[in-house]
Amino acid sequence: MSNAIKVYRHALSGHCHRIELMLSLLGLPATFIDVDLAAGEHKAPPFLNLNAFAQVPVLDDQGVILSDSNAILVYLERRYGSGHWLPNDPLKQAQVQRWLSVAAGPLANSAMKARLVTVFNAPFDPEPLIADAHELFTIMDAHLAHQPFLAGDQATLAEVSLYSYIAHAPEGNVSLEPYPHIRDWLQRIEALEGFVPMGVTKVGLVS
């Protein structure tokens, strides 16, 4: 489809799955172009012409080129959404932004990196990463005990940005068993119309 959105991705990247999930939730057609990270394709032209930071995902919306998964989520909602995923209300929008920051900070530096060790053989010490993930999940589980979604009563970009690496945290040896409210929250996301899963890797606690 020549006018479809193009997404340069790696299929096992949670950052890339965020974009695939958002596109599906919005009902937008897309073409996915796999980037061979193991071969260093992301560190050479022409990919560097798309993203000088040498990271996936990259979105090409008929010539509009964007990188950074959370920035792409905001663009897709503002360009094609109705305000459901990123409310216009200042307080609600700030609450969503808070969780986007959690996705880019505490989650990326804990459960995501722990998964990189098992899935991609990244040279990190997994034990402190796993401990930090449990600290984050304890906070989130208590938060979700009082409301169905992170920013209130409806799913927002907060869910899209955090789902992938939390759902797949067991692949990095981070158990979700102690967190019933997080597990219920994951099920609510998976029940959304348009939800698409990310492929499971049989490593860590999933093996």
From TrEMBL:
CDD domains, A to Z: GST_C_7 (cd03206), GST_N_4 (cd03056)
Domain of life: Bacteria
Entry keywords, A to Z: Transferase
Transmembrane segments: none
Keyword check for Transferase: yes
Residue span, GST N-terminal domain: 3-84
Alphabetized SUPFAM superfamilies for the sequence: GST C-terminal domain-like (SSF47616), Thioredoxin-like (SSF52833)
MF term (GO), any: transferase activity
Domain GST C-terminal: 89-207
PROSITE patterns: GST_CTER (PS50405), GST_NTER (PS50404)
InterPro entries for the chain: Glutathione-S-Trfase_C-like (IPR010987), Glutathione-S-Trfase_C_sf (IPR036282), Glutathione_S-Trfase (IPR040079), Glutathione_S-Trfase_N (IPR004045), GST_C (IPR004046), Thioredoxin-like_sf (IPR036249)
A matching Pfam family: GST_N_2
Protein name (Swiss-Prot/TrEMBL): Glutathione S-transferase
